[in-house]
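Hi U.,

Before I forget, here's the chain from the pilot set. I'm dumping it here mostly so it's searchable later in email.
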Amino acid sequence: MKFGVVVFPGSNCDRDVIEALRTDLNQEVIELWHKDKDLSMFNVEDCIVLPGGFSYGDYLRCGAIAKFSPMMQSVIEFANKGGRVLGICNGFQILCESGLLPGVLLRNSHQQFVCKNVYIKDATSEHSSCMKIPVAHGEGRYFADEATLEELEMHRQIMYRYCDDKGSVTHASNPNGATHNIAGICNKERNVIGMMPHPERACNAALGNEDGRKIFAHLFQLN
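Structure:
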């Protein structure tokens, strides 16, 4: 399995993702510049990652300009053919702006940038344990209308929810006011995934946290 990491002007977590995948998880990684278009070296079993940061300076709206980049047009085509795509933080915002995922990421309810460790749990399993994963965002409050939320619940598209260190989904454990404590979702076909927390920042023992490895293992069955 290969990973392609897209680099936009303003991306600041691309190196983190590359290091985590290549060094900590021993995966093949290819860097992809936003002005390029070629994804011919990837097949649908591979994964394109949209990293966190401030693509195009977050002008207009977070991710609103990035969706028009040449590479994103290729990523959209790749996803529509069944290719795997993972968007982290700003990457999640880009996926929603591009229409690959439903809903929108709004300004945090407390109107402040949040940067800390939080706990999330796998919302697709009744017996999942909580994982400590960092967040760093000002516009991470997931929102969708009631009809969309019902569809997400019906098709089990909610991948992760914010919780406390015991695994309980509570208001206090929600760092940004996200609807239903949603930290990550996927599309109906389950090949496009977006999440606000940064698993790539929790993959090395030197950082004092390796729970991010569990996220990548859950999503891609990596060792």
